[in-house]
Amino acid sequence: MGFTIDCLGASREVGRSAFLVKTDKKIMLDYGIKIFDPTGKPKFPLEHTKPDMVVISHAHLDHSGCVPSLYRNMKVRWHAPPPTKDICEVLWKDSMKIMGDGLPYRRSHFNKALKYWTPMQYNKPIKTGNTRVELYDAGHICGAAMIDLRYKGKRLLYSGDFKGEETFMHKGARPVEDADVLVMETTYALKDHPPRKETETKLMQEIYETIDNGGNALLPSFALGRTQELIALIRSYDPEIPVFVDGMGRELTRIYLKHPKYIKDPKAFRKAVRSVNIVESIADKKRASNTPCAIIAGAGMMNGGTILNYLFHANSQSKVIFTGYCIEGTNGWLLQNKGYIMQDDQELHVDLPVEYLDLSAHAGRKDIMKFIETANPEKIVLVHGDQPKKFAEELKEEGYDAVAPLPGERIETG
Ligand SMILES: [Zn+2]
Ligand SMILES: [Zn+2]
């Protein structure tokens, strides 16, 4: 008897990750939202029966953003490491502020969700019925986990979002041996990241050059994960250049510091955070704009956020450096491809040099292949990617049983 997997989202798409896995229990793995959809409307997981338990791999909204909506009509415990709960609280609150009625939950469901959280640690398995659940460090963001389910001698590993390569904040996920079923993210399955050290050196060169010219090196950054990685990265190369951090990244950085067990070198990170300027006031913002410096601020794709204020105030010696992926149609994508951003329905041309450096927190192709080879699974379910079908074909040629399910598809494993 194997597993039944209902794919409720993140199937041939990135966003609204949600997989209901049936053993003797019904276990929901992730319950996310898709914020950017070509339809212009957010998307939520498909209809499903009531789970007995929910496990959340990490706090990014595409994995956690719909959890409060479960509490409209059910009582179910959701499990995740402590940083995930703390970060979810901040991100869900922010979603309510930004999306309001566009969300499938209200304040009361949010409050209830926080009450129904149960802490789980890495490498400390728990049991529900005859199913064993264990989490491993996924190396992606603070508290991110891969989820291991074991039932009747069979093992299912859900990768969540993971990174095998070491970064400044995380040691990197370790490949898992002998999984029978591997549910795998494929964000970068068809692409390898450039060598990380080279990218880091290039980033520092760009920052130095901009500062030497008297400009702002503007680093549009996701508040969660990227902001902290950039603080640690810049400080490990240079303890002195002026760095300003603004936006929600400030609050999330404080949460990172609250959970030292979940970061690689908490001592170095604490020191790095102390040595950067955390923007707290209008005067600080002005000081940042008037200082040749690096500015780390959200939003990562420049769709809103304080980074836009810095962009409007930047002098002509400044430069915009993206270190994360921008979805087509977002300001970040427009700026990189068309040289303008949209502001109040107007095209606003930006006359600054724009650079993209890949410092992704996702596994590249090499990492993904290594995971597959080590797990050597009977079945591979490819999710969380734009072209999982192409990758499935490739894996089939190598002799694997790989599928790229559509939303709503049910997979039965042997
Ligand atoms: Zn993620
Ligand atoms: Zn994700």
Describe this structure in words.
By secondary structure, the chain is an alpha/beta fold. The chain has helices at residues 61-64, 82-99, 107-115, 196-212, 226-237, 249-258, 266-275, 282-290, 307-313, 331-338, 365-375, 388-397, and strands at residues 4-7, 19-22, 26-29, 53-55, 78-80, 117-119, 126-128, 131-137, 145-151, 154-158, 181-185, 216-220, 243-245, 277-278, 293-297, 319-322, 340-343, 346-349, 354-356, 379-383, 402-403, 410-412. A hairpin with a 2-residue loop joins strand 9 and strand 10 (154-158). The chain is globular. The termini are close together. The structure holds zinc ion (2 copies). One zinc ion is lined by residues 58, 60, 140, 161.
Q: Could you give the topology of this structure?
A:
Elements: E1 4-7, E2 19-22, E3 26-29, E4 53-55, H1 61-64, E5 78-80, H2 82-99, H3 107-115, E6 117-119, E7 126-128, E8 131-137, E9 145-151, E10 154-158, E11 181-185, H4 196-212, E12 216-220, H5 226-237, E13 243-245, H6 249-258, H7 266-275, E14 277-278, H8 282-290, E15 293-297, H9 307-313, E16 319-322, H10 331-338, E17 340-343, E18 346-349, E19 354-356, H11 365-375, E20 379-383, H12 388-397, E21 402-403, E22 410-412
Parallel strand pairs: 3-4, 4-5, 5-6, 10-11, 11-20, 12-15, 12-16, 13-14, 13-15, 16-19, 20-21
Antiparallel strand pairs: 1-2, 1-22, 2-3, 7-8, 8-9, 9-10, 17-18
The structure holds zinc ion (2 copies).
One zinc ion binds next to loops.
